[in-house]
Amino acid sequence: MKLVIVRHAIAEDRVAFAETGQPDSARPLTDAGRKKMRANACGLRTVVPSLDVLATSPYVRARETADILAETYGRRVDEVPALAHGGSHAALLAWLQEETAETVALVGHEPDLGLLIGWLVTGEAAPIVPLKKGGAALVLFPDLPLYGDGEIRWVLTPKLLRQLGR
Hints:
Rossmann fold
C-alpha cells in the first residue's frame, strides 16, 4: 500500500478563532490557505497521479483540505474519526488494514501525523518527520500496513509541492 499523508493547509489563527467561542474543531482554512493548497494539490498529483481512497479528520480545516484534494483527484472524501487531533493510531491502522486500495491519502493534524509516521516506520510513536501545513509524505508498505513496517519514500514541503505543480 502507498500511504500519502497530508497535513491540513493554513487555518485561521487558533487564538483569534478561540475568541469566537467556537470549538477548535470548527476552525477553517484561510483564503490564502485554500489558494496555496490548490497549488499544492496540483504538485502532489505530479508525484501521486491517482488516489484510490481519500480520508480526512472530521475537523473543518482538514475536511476543507481534503475537499481541495478531492476536486483535484476526482475522489470522494471519507471522514475517519481516528484522524482527528489526538486520535488513536491503533484505530487508524485497523481502518487502513480493512482497505484494499493501492493508494490511500490521509489528511490530518500535527503533531499527530508526525507521530503516526514515526510509529508506522519505527514501531514507536516518535516524531521523526514533522509536516508543514499543506505538506505531504509517502510511506510505502510491502502489503497490508503494519506499524514498524513502513518505509518513508519522500517528504515534500508545501513550497516544493507548489513548484512541482507549475
